[in-house]
Amino acid sequence: MRFANANRIRLVLAGAVLTVAVGCHKKPQPPILPPMPATPAGPAVVPTVTIQANPTAIQRGQSTLLSWNSEHAVSLELNGRRVNLTGSQQVAPQASTDYTALARDTNGATATASVRVTVTEPPAPVTPQPTSEDLGQSFDTNVKDVFFDYDQSGLRADGEAALRQDADFLKAHPDLAIVIEGHCDERGSAEYNIALGDRRANAVRDYLVRLGVDGSRVKTVSYGKEKPFCAESNEECWQQNRRAHLARVQ
Amino acid sequence: MNRHLPAPPPSFRVSAVPHWRRVLAAACLLLLAVPLLPAQANISIRSSKKLRLALPEFALTSPDPAAAGLERTFHDVLHNDLEQSGLVAMVSPSTYPLETPANPAALDQAKVAGWANAPTLAERLAFGNLRVNGSTLQVEGYLYDVTQPSAAFLLGKRYSDQPSDAAARVMAHEFADAIIEKLGGGPGIANSHIVFISNRSGSKEVWSMDYDGANQHQITTLASIAYSPRLSPDGSKLAFVSYASGTPQIKIYDLLGRHYLSFPEFKGTNITPAWSPDGRKLAFASSMSGDMELYVIDVNGGTPRRLTYVKGNDLAPVWNPKTGAQIAFVSDRTGSPQIYVMDADGTNQQRLTNGGYAVSPSWSPNGQLLAFSWRRTGGGENSGEFDIYFMELASRDAEQLTHNGLRNDYPSWAPDGRHVVFQSGSPSRPQLFTVTADGSNPTRLTNTAANEMPNWSFH
To answer: I want to staple A73 with a disulfide (CB 3.0 to 4.6 A). Which of A103, A130, A249, B264 is the partner?
Structure first.
């Protein structure tokens, strides 16, 4: 019952978020065209417009300042959007973009000016020195534990795959020291399980060293069945507990 | 049997038990779980006929009001000790004569007949008196053979101490041991004690108790994980395993001075210490070389000498307490853990169990039997439960002690060679039990939290 209620609450919340999102979405505004001007008397004056971007080339994520100027115009559109006759605007296009200013005078005569802002891909970001918290999160995300069969300390294929990923991470973070904890399920005899967990931890260390991880960064400790990850007496839990857990030395 | 055990040496093939009967007995053992193998004549752990012993209340010979309470303690403890000995059958008090002798002078021929005849049918009579005299508790105890008309004097003891429950308990233990020894049971165990691991303080620490479960008290306070406590032969020191420094290391605690003795730490995992019978050396298992092997080291430190060189886990050594010339141990060099024996210098290694999962050997005081925990293969490697077995070294015949369907592990022999303490129950909450080696008198010693890895003192 409690689960059913919780699910319904989650659904209601999701619906609310959806509604808000739809409500926030702006409908496209039809361009507002000025009324047709009356035919002017006197000599015809042609509108002019200029537009600049400074700088004209940016990296993605950066912005540039568009500025424009017009004379003898009564309205000005920038890429279809009505703007002031003279003005400026910061833009941060995601890709290279042409900005076109269209000036009109009272007679409907127009003038256009364009500027192209070239957007380039930023260079690979310089990795900032990760904070301890970032590293811990990254370690937890990337470094996988290794699981074993009953009363065995030999690596399975899934364990070797996990360790290849672990080794890559450890080699990319050469300052990191780890401790490999050997664990066992509850079924074996406690003293023997200490020995078995020791061999599991050593098997994992040896494999990491073979993959190029400096063995001096890797400590081992066996807890046998003293620190289980779960406490149920079924195979699912036992499998969880037959593991080598890789932990960061703080 | 022969499917699982090595064939007996040729000299035993001509034993009174024909080969087919051994096989049949083994089949019964495995399939029907009969209480005990019937015809295993080679293992002499079953008691012969038990003497019938009567133990009336001790006479109060002082008016001190404290005397009655102390007599109650003394008599209860003495009765339990004698019953637990496995050596005598306690005669039911409901059949006792109305009059109880306070001293030998009161035991005339007519009285003797009253104890010896039906319905009492006692063969031995233990009796005596107790008084509180100011600040002194005095107890006189006697043991007579009442199968002869005039009764034969066997034993007379006098004890005095402060009038406390604890003192009455010690007196009862000492008198019980004196009776057991007089009746041919060898040194008694009433004053022996048992160390074990308990988590009742919140972490796994070494605890100690009297053999009957009384006086349970905490020894270590390291707030870490303690394992495998082993008392030195003279009872003055305790070796055990502790995670206090981060990895499993062996520690030695001086029980008299209540401080830790210096003992070296080694790389890797260091577990399962075992005292040599002379108390000068420790055998232990260590993965300092990368593989878990057995070593022996002077108790005062020094360089460990390596005993085993086979790939695989070698652990849980135990010295032959009688000779010190052999060490039994556990090895998984061929797969699942098995019991092995070797000479104390590491030579002449032989496997004793042949299959299943066998761990936790304990060597009987007379050097003839190993007790260990064995999960035998029946319906696959994971089937079956851990039960306590005995194996006679000479014949390699094995006999099953426990049949409770629970997980039983860590047997440890009592100094009398007639009792075993072991842990039984779920892995998360095992409790400690003693039992006589013939399977009788199972007694639960602990109730609180998880209690495991008992080790019985040498004396």
So the answer is: A103
